[in-house]
Amino acid sequence: MESDNKNNKNGTLNRRDFLKALTAISGAAVISSGCTPEPLDKLVSYAVPPENVIPGLANYYSTAIPNSPAGSSVVVKVREGRAIKIEGNSLDPISQGASSAEDQATLQTLYDPDRIQQPLSKNNRNNLTTITFVAASDILVNKLNENPKNPYIITNNTTGSYDRLLDSFANKISAKRIKFETFSYESIRKANEISYGKALIPTYHIEDVDYLISFGADFLETWLSPTEYSKKFSKMHSLKGKKKSKFVQVEPKLTLTGSKADDWVPISPNQNLSLVLGIINYIKQNKLNRNSIPNIFDNLSYYSLAKTSELTGIAEDSISKIAKDFASSKSALAIGGGVASDGLDSRDTIVAINLLNEITGNSDKIDFDNFLSLSNCSDFKEMTDFIEKAKNGEVDLVIVHGANPVYNVPKPFGFMEAFEKINFKVSFSNLDDETTKMCDLVIPDLHPFEKWGDYEGVNGNLMLIQPAMKPLYDGLSSEEVLVGLFNRINSKSDIKIDQKSFYEYLQNSWKALSGGESFEAFWNKVVKDGGLFKKNSNYSAAKFIANNKIKIEKISTEERLNLYITPSYRFYDGRSSNNSWLQELPDLLTTAVWDSWIEINTKLANKLEIEEGDIIQIESDFGKIETQAYLTSAIRPDTVSISLGQGHTAMGRYASNRGVNPLDLLSPVTSNDGSIDFTSAKVSISKTGKSEKFVKVQHSFSQENRDIAQTIALSALTDDHDHHHDDHHGGHKEYDMYREYDYFVHKWGMNIDLDKCTGCGACVVACYAENNIPVVGKEQVGNGRHMSWLKLERFQDEIKDELLDTVRVDTRIIPQLCQHCENAPCEPVCPVFATYHNPEGINMMVYSRCVGTRYCSNNCSYKVRRFNWFKYEWPEPLNLQLNPDVTVRSKGVMEKCNFCYHRIVQAKDLAKDEKRKLNDGEVLTACQQACSCDAIEFGDLNDPKSEVVKLSKDKRSYALLEELNTRPSISYLKKIEWDKG
Amino acid sequence: MSDFNSLTASQKYSHLNTTVMNMLTKPSWGWWTIFAIDMLFLAFGIYCFIYQVYTGLGVAGYSHPVLWGVYITNFVFWVGIAHSGTLISAVLFLFRARFRMSIYRIAEAMTVFAVATAGLFPIIHLGRPWNFYWLLPYPNQRGLWVNFDSPLLWDVFAVSTYATISSVFFFIGMIPDIAAIRDTVVGKVKKTFYSVASLGWKGSSWEWGHYTRAYFYFACFATPLVISVHSVVSWDFAMANTPGWHTTIFPPYFVAGAIFSGLAMVITLCIPLRSIFKLEDYITMENFNGMSKMIILTSSIVFYAYLTEFFIAWYSGNKYEYDQFLYRANGDYALFYWIMMVCNGIVPHFLWWKKIRENLKILFIISLLINIGMWFERFNIIVISLAKEFEPGSWGLYKPSWVELGITVGSFAWFFMFFLIFVRTLPALSIAEIKEILPVPKKKQEGSTDE
Question: What is the per-residue pLDDT for A33?
């Protein structure tokens, strides 16, 4: 009291009053901050900080995505307990640090808003209701203890410990196992058994060949191990000194893989065998073979050039040229198999391809030591047997995990009807897909990033799956559930599992691998590395042993159109469809999103008066579907094509009721080796009279002679004249009015090799993941509001060949992102400095400063800026994936690529902490890191020794729209073209 | 109505006063109906804007790469309309053009209201309109400044300067007339309003001396603005590198276009006003003849600019320009292009015939067509150029949405709201200046007339 008076008298503020005032002020501040446009959510701090988690610093865990076809070893970036980004594991010899678009999008599968959170059981009223895991396993054990007749376990291609566990489980309950994969490459396996005595799917060593011919194998998209083959292809196809290998793709419809071919040969569907035999016959007649030609095929001489040309629709010259080139190349390889060559004679086609490799002395590139675990898939025959049995009511119980046969087994086989007849159906899926919808008990599995496991995609290359984060919803992995209930099952066989958990079971199976080390040290190492990878790349060459006669069945030619179904590099066989990133990733060749379409040859469409966007009815003998038309010249007029992966009736909000499933059109006839015959459908198409806007990202596919995606002839590159090469980054300084920028320390730049880029889209999805790019949906993409910072543009200029009266489609792909111009047109026009040039040469965007005049985008010559038209939402829990290092933009502001500036800052901080300079190649942008063909190089243009400077001085280097003198920091390397003729 | 020409000079003076006063009497139900309909459209426009702010700019039809559309079209259109007011009042004042006297007040009012309408659009079109004040350079706690390199900032200055000067000019010109109204009007509210607005004008010769000099200086001051405002607005486009925008012809072309459209708008407003308020004695064929002749002149300039653009696109050998202009005449928006060509280039030349000039019905239709043509001119420049720029992979089309059309209609309602209030509250004819051209009454009758 006294002191108060004293203070008052003096008129000064005492500590108490000061604090009072402070409280009042900060209270007011808190209240007023509530009026900001983006209210902060409730903030909760750690009471007890978890171990190893330092807020703001990421943890990285190696794990694997056990997905077909070959699995991917990945490193998961975890921030504050949430997985936010994945990168390829650079220790893995298969992916070598690269990842595919599908891999990148796995994060959205983890945070899928439609994930089943708790077990479900069918109640009396036939509704699925939530139960506990304990109750669910009790129900399952009781059912199993009732001695069900002919139980079945249908899974995808499982490998490693889980596969062993399932085997013992199947033994225990005397169940049959079906490892079902839509693309199981059964014909390759069967053919190799004939050719080499090994029923395996080998690794093809394409990386060192001079000439590669692929009979419809889409190895850059889905075939066998696409990430691995992208790497290998990049190595094989890149310029080596003055030489470049040639790649020829034979297929009825241009695919992404075909678009990278130096020669694209459109062939009548189902005629691959004829072509291969024609080539072999030509080699034989002209004695171009190196090894003797075993007399396997009866009437080889029937395939004269003229006959082959007639059957395949390929000009005689082309066939003889392929044969000559193939035989004369020092090292050549022919590959095939997969959907394209699946047909009645698919196995024989592969045998013929093997024969072609053998007689030219190229069998040594086929490696059976590193065979794919895909070789262990069940024959499709087992599936048809199952369907037969189930139809007759002979199957009482079925367990499904990782497979969605209701969707993936072509409808005419009657899987659904058969499945319905089974008494008790269990699904271990965490998505409510078509198969799960029909099940009586659903026990949701965990995502691979939440559980333990292992995967062996290629023989001997072991990947370990470790939980990178706590399960999103309390739950158990299917493996744990099986281990938990294993010993509770009464069974004739007395197989028991000694381990209490799957984790112990897993460790137990790895014990044998530890060698001399202590297991703990070994285990820690493999967990850290993400597996036990194969280091030895030696293999023994395959020996050709076939000598049985193969009779060639004539394939009837029909008037109706051939349906060519392509696997999707976005959705694979439809398993990744409930993924908004992949749905919004434009299909490269059509740039269509969120839907299905049927590709029709332009000439045919003109004849039928079909226009783009018309709804077309496609009818085969076994079904009919309706979808939108897309016209292209890059498909044969006798063929129409639909991509696989859409047409789900269930599975979640992004997948269901979208597009069509072309498998519904196939005939219930398998090919002569028993596998699904993807080419069996003959269809007729008709207009329905309806038409809808065809939603695609790019509207103009012609370059309009503007040299956006440039090429250079191989001869121009290899001649000895030393071209004077302009340094693009010097620009035309004499025209510049303004002072040069000073880049004191760094000047960041990028180089993109158009010759290497395959357009696989991994970079695009990686950019979405890294930079919190919103997904806008089909309608908004249709309105031109696609938000991707990195856009793969593709140009198809049609070049008419007067001589042959054909149209050659020249496909070029160019990744478009902010060019970070030195003379950036966007910078001076912004009235509020929301976009500015930073001292490291990056054209920065300050979101909070932007008022949204959009002048910058109007003035951008490359049109790489994106505007936030709305406040975009991430449906929970997808928001957990957001990268905390990158601002989530609010509505009304502009955004664009900033060269992953947060990554640059991070690398600089690290270098500073370690008191050293930043090394070249230390900063990797998200797109660069994901690229499986090493097309993107990023670095400091101020550092004369950096890789990016070297590349920018390359003969092939050019700047986009150079004549505008914007002086981009990105240089492109021209695609190399073989000289014509 | 009495035969005006037969009246004595003194009667003419009082006739003018009564005519103006009659316009300010209690509005009829007709006026109220029009005003109510107008407010309805305005309310819809406001609703559209609120909806847009709340939901996001995505409700407009924008589509990459066309990120400017109807809003900027409206902005340029209204700024253009605003031009002829100052031209008629200031430039023609300096040139002593007699035909301006009876229409300049209407033109000035139109200018002020058009600027008030135009000024809304740069804010409406913003992604975050609530932050529009970030474009104003004033010392602020954000520690941020504006970018004087940006043409958009120049716009801020150009338009705000023009708005200020034209309002002041408008107001100054009205002072003697307001004083005249003050002297006759009854009712306390009205009396107070006009008293305050007349700034205590007494009509002394000392006042007149200063007044006329001030008016002259303001006219001199406003004249360069006629050229500067639209030149600056044209720089929004000319300074950008977009093919179809990046051209040095834009400033004169835009200024001519602005005067052209402004004159058409004055005619559009004057013809109905003249017949409703029976102003035939004051707004005469001389006025329409004069304006029509200026329309012919400006139309020719604009048409010449259209052709020059084409010629340069061909002559420059610049493939981007070449493709752009081919696309304008021949592409997705060709219909709008030809609407513009016909309305602005062909239709006005019917005014070479005096019969057409003096047939007010036809003149009215022609003026409407010119307004439409000039709106599409801006639309074509903005949208067609953006739709096909350098990079073919990014090309796309734009279609306005109902929200944009709603706001556009609302902007017309906003403009007419001001105009409707204006004709009922302020002198639409300049009493003082018209009296300058009327014969002066004899001295002994001086006492009976006002002022």
Answer: 46
